[in-house]
Each structure stands twice: as C-alpha cells, then as structure tokens.
Design a protein that fits this description.
This protein is α+β, with helices and mostly antiparallel strands and 210 residues long. The protein is 15% helix and 39% strand. The protein has one domain: Mog1/PsbP, alpha/beta/alpha sandwich (Protein Transport Mog1p, Chain A, 3-Layer(aba) Sandwich), CATH 3.40.1000. Strand 4 (64-66) and strand 5 (72-74) form a beta hairpin. The longest helix has 17 residues, at 189-205. The protein is globular, with a radius of gyration of 17 Å.
C-alpha cells in the first residue's frame, strides 16, 4: 500500500463519542432522523454506524472460526462468537453487484494455537507488498483504539470483467490476540468515490468497547 500512512490519533475519542451516542439513541425516535443507523452485536462490544438509507442484509452468530491451517472449522453448540453483519447500499440488485457498495463487520475469536504469532495481514487476502497481481495499495494506516489496534488497507484491483474495484478493510486485534475485529467495504472505483465520505464516517466512528 505504498508504506504506512497517517495514524488516527483521535480515534479513541471518536469511538467513545459514538458509543455514548448509541446509548443515548437506543429507544429514542430522534435517532431515526439522524441519517444513520447503528449495527451492534449482542454483547454490545462493537458498534457500526452506517447511512440510514443502506440495508442491513444479514446479522447474527456464525458457526465457523479460523484455524491455523487457514481452514474454516465449524463450532459445535451455541456461542456468542463469531458474529457477523453484512450491509449494502440500496438498491443492491444482487450480492456482489459492483456499482453498489457492500460491507461487513465481524468479530472472530482467535484459536489459541494462533495467538503467539498472529499476523493480521493474513486476513486481507492480499500481500500489500506484492504488486505482481495487478494490486495497487492506495492507503495503509495503523489504527489504534485503546487495547485494540491493527492495519487498514485500501487497494485497487481489476476484476475478470476488466472493471477497477476498490476494497477498504480494517482488521484489529486486542493486545493478547484473543479476538479479531474487522470492518470492510467493496465496490467499483466510481461507487467507492461516490461513497467515500460515508466510508470515512463509518471508519472514524467504528467502536470496540471491550
């Protein structure tokens, strides 16, 4: 991504402000007129603020986790984690429609065998230092929020139809590498440019309280 960019020194304050706003808005009719809606997990540890006009496509506990060999392992029984919510700009003609932004927020517990040498970059699906696949990294920031920190990458790549796509993703872990918190977006370059201010607002107010 062309080197490490500017960190977000005010992020903790912004996140705490967002959490307070969520607490104040719960059950209040005025929140519906703010232009934004909140997505939160059942334990109230993660909040995502998205435009009110966007659609929450799915939300809830998922039954898989990541193992050291990179495979998805099914989790037996009931669990509060992992948790994932997906959202999209409306109208979204179909999943993956490139001219409509889609996004997701996820909380993923880290397998004990992975904690000692966990590398958050493995969860991006690209190597930010490899330019041989036509990937252009346009932003690379280190984001820190209290005990939680990690990289945010924005990159461009061309899909099979020859269309330039943009992916924007933040992956953070706690200091003990017990949990991964991620939020990300993707669509074509024109769509990303149109929604860039909304994306920056979401990233600046993405809140992890635990």
């Amino acid at each position: 991504m062309g080197g490490v960019g500017r960190p977000f020194p005010a992020r903790r304050t912004l996140a705490l402000t967002a959490a307070a706003a969520v607490a104040a808005c719960l059950g209040a009719a005025a929140c519906g007129r703010s232009g934004y809606q909140y997505i939160e997990n059942g334990d109230d540890t993660v909040f995502v603020k998205i435009p009110e006009s966007w659609e929450v496509v799915s939300e809830g506990v998922v039954d898989y986790t990541v193992t050291p060999d990179g495979d998805l392992q099914l989790l037996p029984g009931d669990s509060a984690l992992p948790w994932r919510a997906t959202f999209a700009e409306v109208p979204a003609a179909a999943p993956g429609t490139p001219d409509r932004i889609t996004g997701a927020v996820e909380i993923q517990p880290v397998d004990r065998r992975m904690r000692a040498d966990l590398n958050p970059y493995r969860f991006f699906g690209i190597d930010p230092n490899d330019t041989t696949d036509g990937i252009e990294v346009v932003r690379h920031d280190l984001v820190k929020l209290g005990d939680v920190s990690g990289p945010r990458l924005v990159w461009k790549q061309t899909n099979e139809q020859g269309e330039e796509m943009v992916v924007d993703r933040l992956v953070m872990t706690d200091s003990l590498n017990r949990v991964i918190y991620s939020v990300g977006f993707g669509c074509n370059a024109g769509c990303y440019g149109t929604n860039e201010s909304s994306i920056e607002e979401i990233m600046a107010t993405f809140t992890v309280t635990d």
